[in-house]
Design goal:
With about 80 residues, the protein is of the alpha+beta class. It is about 20% helix and about 35% strand. It is globular.
Amino acid sequence: MLKRFGGGGLTETTERIMGEMHYPEIKSIKANSGDMVLIDVENVHPDAHGLTAAIMACPNVAIAQGKETLVYINNPDIKRAWAI
């Protein structure tokens, strides 16, 4: 579905949507409350690999969808970030 809609995987789809909505990419260390980030999925699912999308709750905590509920991740390994 992502390949069809966004032209690739999660990263490509996120780049496309953020670009279309004019949300600028920022340095990972600048991510703050409300910003969209791509983090290492191992922060959320220890048995998984790759990236997952999350929203920053504050400068040091991200919120992502876990297997059954939302998961709060302290000091997430942020790979990409967009100011919202």
